[in-house]
Amino acid sequence: VQLVESGGGLVQPGGSLRLSCAASGFPFSDYGMRWYRQPPGLERDFVASISTAGGSTNYPDFVKGRFTISRDNAKNTVYLQMNSLKPEDTAVYYCVAVGRYRYWGQGTQVTVSS
């Protein structure tokens, strides 16, 4: 089983990034997918979730309207489009597969700074 995040990096406040998470080794379309983040020195927070077919999404208030989760089951990939980024969005971002089991990726660093 592998979940490999990519797309992180350094971006200025107000900018955008698109994270990708490529999955393999399990039935991707049977799993709900989530993104979490962990800012430096803080606990891990839930960021977004999407249902198996992509018809249902959920976000906490602090990213609602700025972040969009999507998935492509043909490509076994989940995405996180992040717009209007703020310095407080700086964190390591993880994708998570939730189903019969729970699988975590290794994370990708997002730094929002001028």
A few lines on this structure:
The chain contains no helices and eleven strands. It has strands at 2-6, 9-11, 17-24, 32-38, 45-50, 57-58, 67-72, 77-82, 91-98, 102-104, 108-112. 31% of the residues are buried.
Topology summary:
Layout (H helix, E strand, L loop, with lengths): L1 E5 L2 E3 L5 E8 L7 E7 L6 E6 L6 E2 L8 E6 L4 E6 L8 E8 L3 E3 L3 E5 L2
Structural features, described:
The protein is an all-beta fold and 114 residues long. The strands form 2 sheets. Strands 2, 4, 5, 6, 9, 10 and 11 form a 7-stranded mixed β-sheet that branches. It has a 4-stranded antiparallel β-sheet with strand order 1-3-8-7, with no helix packed on it. It is globular, with a radius of gyration of 13 Å. Strand 5 and strand 6 form a beta hairpin. The protein has no helices and 11 strands.
